[in-house]
Specification:
It is built from 13 helices and 11 strands. The chain folds into 3 domains: 124 residues, 2-Layer Sandwich (Transcription Regulator spoIIAA), CATH 3.30.750.24; 112 residues, STAS domain (Transcription Regulator spoIIAA), CATH 3.30.750.24; 98 residues. A 6-stranded mixed β-sheet has the order 5-4-3-2-1-6, sandwiched between helices. A 5-stranded mixed β-sheet has the order 7-8-9-10-11, sandwiched between helices. The chain is of the alpha/beta class.
């Protein structure tokens, strides 16, 4: 295929990219990448030299292609050297976070040195054949924006891989404007139709994410394709975003699906119960300290203990399931409940005072038991 050449040497393989690659459709690039990945895998050498020196800029799809080839190599033995003297190319690689994974060289001589080989020897050149030509059906809209109940959604169209960086940026701006004008604070971005992704699209994703950050909103990304997900991981964005495999899971993650809303209502009920019971338990402690030795003090402590136990159970469940302010409130309720339950060990609490009081029922019961024992021991009396 025009734009890509695979060379198999005695100790390494070479991938050469030329500017003609920018004229190739992204689907053709994907098919060529699969074949190159297999050729690298089948080669006895586990070292690859990627020659990007003829490129002034990075064509669409090249980054994802390189990631796929790199992943197809033996993880423990692979050596992957990328040669490019152009600052624009290396900057784009740095933006995706790949410079920390690959070795960069500015000249072919430096690349050969990094691999520990001596130039082009024993070369077998294989021009990657083009795949069968298929009619390309595309939509005119690069981004499909929709406002749905409780959230906004943006679907990426594969036509984006055929657009230049400037066109992608220009198409992203209206989406950003719509997100700012929308009252919804949750965004679902669907990359399900994308088989590849480049740094220009990553920049668009970052712009959308920052827009939602400014609104204190939520951001969930649907990426079922492993190649696309690997590029996101390499760019270091996996830890910042919620990345899931399908829209249903993304809607649940945003809290806008029916199941998520039902679970959210249950969590709110748990918080309300925990806080309410903890509050009532705290107020029930007041009569306990005012009338320690009376029935009122004992009953108020028993009521406080029962309410605190209920607040402790519901509060712990809420702390495990919830987050944010509800989790904080549940945590406070748990601490209050633990403090009230610890009153059983207070010196002079009503229950202990009632047990130790000489005139209570327990003393009488002990006296009756003693009398009975005496009569049994002395049956003649």
């Amino acid at each position: 295929m025009n734009g890509v050449t695979f060379e198999k040497h005695s100790g390494y393989c070479t991938l050469r990219f030329t500017p003609e690659l920018s004229e190739v459709a992204w689907k053709d690039v994907e098919e060529a990448t699969k074949r190159v990945t297999q050729q690298v895998h089948d080669a006895p050498a586990n070292s690859v030299l990627v020659d990007l020196s003829p490129l002034q800029t990075m064509p669409s799809g090249v980054v994802a292609s390189l990631v796929q080839t790199w992943k197809g190599m033996n993880e423990k033995r692979r050596r992957f050297v990328v040669v490019s003297p152009q600052q624009a190319v290396t900057d784009e690689l740095a933006q995706t976070g790949l410079t920390s994974l690959w070795t960069l060289a500015s000249t072919l001589e430096q690349g050969y040195s990094e691999l520990g080989v001596v130039g082009d020897t024993d070369v077998e050149i294989d021009q990657v054949p083009p795949p069968p030509v298929e009619p390309l059906t595309t939509s005119s809209d690069p981004f499909i924006f929709e406002e749905q109940r409780g959230f906004c959604s943006v679907q990426f169209n594969p036509i984006l891989m055929t657009l230049s960086w400037g066109d992608v940026e220009a198409g992203t701006s209206p989406v950003i404007q719509q997100l700012k004008q929308s009252r919804r604070k949750s965004l679902l971005v669907d990359l399900g139709a994308m088989d590849m992704i480049n740094s220009g699209l990553i920049a668009s994703l970052v712009r959308m994410w920052k827009t939602m950050e400014e609104k204190n909103g939520q951001f969930s990304l649907v990426s079922p394709n492993e190649v696309v997900t690997d590029v996101l991981k390499s760019a270091g964005l996996w830890k910042l975003w919620s990345v899931v495999d399908d829209r249903e899971e993304a809607a649940y993650d945003l809290g806008v699906s029916r199941g998520a809303q039902s679970e959210q209502r249950e969590r709110r009920i748990l918080v309300m119960v925990a806080v309410s019971f903890a509050t009532m338990a705290a107020f029930s402690m007041i009569p306990m300290f005012m009338k320690r030795e009376g029935d009122v003090g004992v009953n108020s402590q028993l009521a406080a203990l029962l309410l605190a136990a209920a607040a402790l159970v519901t509060g712990v469940i809420s702390v495990i399931k919830d987050r944010g302010i509800p989790r904080l409130l549940s945590g406070i309720a748990v601490l209050v409940a633990l403090g009230i339950l610890s009153s059983l060990w207070f010196e002079g609490n009503p229950i202990k005072a009632a047990q130790l009081s000489p005139g209570n029922g327990n003393t009488a019961a002990i006296g009756i038991a003693s009398t009975s024992d005496t009569q049994q021991n002395y049956p003649g009396k």
